[in-house]
Amino acid sequence: MRPKELKHWTTGVAYLLSQPAGRARLLGLAQWLQQICHVDHFVLFVYEGNHRPLALFDTFPADKRHVYVEDYQVGPYLLDPFYLACTRNQAPGLWRLRQFAPDHFYLGEYYVTYYQQTGLTEEIAFFIDLADGAKAVLSLMRSACSPAYSRDEMQLLDCAQAVVEQVVGEAWEQRRAHQPRPAQDLDYKIRETFEQFGAHLLTAREQEVVQMLLRGHSSASVAEHLAISPGTVKIHRKNIYAKLGIGSQSELLGLLVRDLAGQREAVSEAVLRAAI
Predict the structure, then answer these.
(1) Domain HTH luxR-type spans what residues (predicted)?
(2) pTM, 2 dp
């Protein structure tokens, strides 16, 4: 970075830190990061225990927010490589989505049915550790009309980690102070539905296979992770499909989506009853 560019960048830091903590400063952060490279969309999710992902900030227009945020929160997040990395306590830093994606992620039903709707060509994200074990993921998205992030862009963005951590951490603390979340709310039912999907018909091992297939693992990858042979995985798939009365992985995802949708309706009804 040249001296003139460096001066412009550091002036931007001073400006964004002068903004009020919360949305104003997060917006300043997004504008500051845009000085490094072009970003089509920003979204900041906080993953905390069994709660649904909390969208703390985003720059989506209204017509796109439904897919990127609202649809995502209903259940697809459970198959998201970034979310799954958080459940494995991924270290803070800047990461590409493809670093965590299973071998068949871009052929899997989650990608085809949900992720492809977003029209993204690439997604990278800052991972930030928050208080009490929560994780924040600030995604920087590029649509199909933009190129992938270059190595130089990634190196420059990586230099911004400390500023990102400070701004995001302050926004989260402000949110917790003004709108604390209950220790356990009804949203945990969404995750429970996924973890118990097919439990009334499938064995524990078959449930493991189902969850990995839905997350984008190939049969070979499932076999490697579960320390079984690919042939055994094929037998499990055959038995799973027979027990569930389906004939393809797309139908498998359809059953999960139906169950998740039903759970969301039940949760919403319970919330309404509690409010009366």
Answers:
(1) 195-260
(2) 0.78
> CA nearest 42: which of 171, 227, 155, 152?
171
Q: Are 181 and 219 in contact (CB under 8 A)?
A: no
At residue 253, the pLDDT reads 79
pLDDT tens-digit readout, 160-206: 999 999 999 999 999 988 887 765 555 667 777 888 888 889 999 99
> Please, what sign has the CA dihedral across residues 249, 252, 254, 257?
negative
Q: List the domains of the chain with CATH numbers.
A: 16-178 (3.30.450.80), 188-275 (1.10.10.10)
Name the amino acid, one letter, at 173: E
Task: Tell me if 82 sits within 8 A of 91, measured CB to CB.
Answer: no
Query: Do residues 142 and 43 lie in contact, with contact meaning Cβ atoms separated by under 8 Å?
Result: no
CA-CA distance, 243 to 239, in Å (whole number)? 6
What does the alpha-carbon distance between residue 171 and residue 57 come to, in Å, rounded to a whole number? 9
